[in-house]
Amino acid sequence: MTPLLKAEGLVRCYEGQKTLFKKSGTVRAVDRIDLTLKPGETLGFVGESGSGKSTLGRMLLGIDPATEGHVSFDGKPMPQMYSPEWRALRAQMQLVFQDPLAALDRRLTIADQIGEPLEIHGLAKGYALKERVSALMEQVGLRPEQGARYPHELSGGQRQRVIIARALATSPRLLVCDEPVSALDVSIQAQVVNLLRDLQEDHGIAMVFISHDLKVVRNICDRVAVMYLGRIVEEASSDEIFAYPQHPYTKALVSSVPLPGQSLQGRILLKGEPPNPAHRPSGCAFHPRCSAAIPSCAIDVPALENTAPKRRAACHLLNKPLSGKVA
Predict the structure, then answer these.
(1) For position 173, what pLDDT does the model report?
(2) What is the DSSP string of 263-288?
(3) DSSP assigned state of 102
(4) How, if at all, do strands 311-313 and 231-237 pair?
(5) Which of the residue ranges 46-55, 169-178, 186-195, 240-249 would you say has the lowest mean pLDDT?
(6) What pairing do the DSSP bridges indicate for beta strands 223-228 and 27-37?
(7) Of 242, 237, 233, whose CA–CA distance to 213 is shortest?
(8) Cα–Cα distance for residue pair 286/314, rounded to 1 Å
(9) How many whole angstroms separate alpha carbon 136 and alpha carbon 182?
(10) How many C-beta atoms surround the C-beta of residue 45 within 10 A?
(11) Are 294 and 316 in contact, with CB atoms under 8 Å apart?
(12) Average model confidence (pLDDT) for the chain?
């Protein structure tokens, strides 16, 4: 099956700020990412804050340009941002934002904002537009009369449903969900996650789901990629990741998820803090915090290699050490 989305060698660098006496180093927010996403599949990205998840999500949509590498959608290279081709492609790729109140215009009614993508892409107008907006609201569990309200008149969960309805307006083939439930109460989180899962099953939408909440990721994702300091350190099916994590960092993340009837004695506590991205450690970036690190971890960068069918990991304990230069 031809991948709907494919990324090869993605790198995103940000230049450090200059001061009177020094300049901070270049930050590689995304560093050598390769991935594929099949139609109808959900790929989750997890990791600590600052691991590059949100930046990667914007790059996959062409919103954030790549310093190196390229993205292809449906077998074709991603057009340059703001070009006519890119604007036309935006109807097939949509972003679900983390903060719905910040993503919505407080001066426009809910109905106007849901219908805006349809007007921009010339998909509906007049009575057909109103009918499509009403159908979208009903699809995400909103009442038609709520269309006359403004964002501040809705609850957080209702606003997130508006964001989802607006993203679905153009019948996209890809949704990139950037922490879509992190700002919601736990009970509302479950409702929104179930809504997204049902919509994906009904319409065959492919999703990139970015989150730091492993319980949510386990519930909705087919595959999971674990990121650390801009790189993927492990990728496998959701069941394999949570049942048999391989990378030491993945093991620590999975052990932090509380399970009913299970004690916290087996929890793995990481030492120290994530390193400064502007001053990346040599070799494996995780080695200063890894209790299983060996001498080669501080020298060579582990390659992301297959450790089993449809499973990859980047760890010297699992792979052969590199003989090349330090990255």
Answers:
(1) 95
(2) -STTPPPPPS-PPPGGGPPSSSTTGG
(3) H
(4) antiparallel
(5) 186-195
(6) unpaired
(7) 242
(8) 11
(9) 23
(10) 27
(11) yes
(12) 89
pLDDT score of 327 more than 60? no
Cβ atoms < 10 Å from Cβ of 14: 14
Exposed, middle or buried, 121 (CB in 10 Å: 0-12/13-18/19+)? middle
Domains of the chain, earliest start first? 5-16+26-258+265-313 (3.40.50.300)
Per-residue pLDDT, 326: 35
Strand partners, 44: 209, 224
What lies within 8 Å, CB to CB, of 185 at 6+ separation is 156, 157
Widest distance between CA atoms in the chain: 68
Among the listed residues 44, 34, 35, the one whose alpha carbon sits nearest the alpha carbon of residue 200: 44
Q: DSSP per residue over 113-158, as a string?
A: HHHHHHHHTTS--HHHHHHHHHHHHHHTT--GGGGGS-GGGS-HHH
**Spatial separation of the C-alpha atoms in residues 104 and 41, rounded to whole Å:** 28
Alpha carbons 15 and 78: distance in angstroms, whole number: 24
Distance between start and end Cα atoms, the chain? 34
Give the whole-angstrom CA distance, residue 188 versus residue 247: 32
Asked if residue 262 has pLDDT above 80, the reply is no
pLDDT at 325 over 50: no
Question: What confidence tens digit (pLDDT) does each residue in 3-14 have?
Answer: 999 999 999 998
Averaged pLDDT, 300-327: 76
Per-residue pLDDT reduced to its tens digit, 117-164: 999 999 999 999 999 999 999 999 999 899 999 999 999 889 999 999
Contact 151, 102 (CB under 8 A): no
**Which residue type is seen at 86?**
W
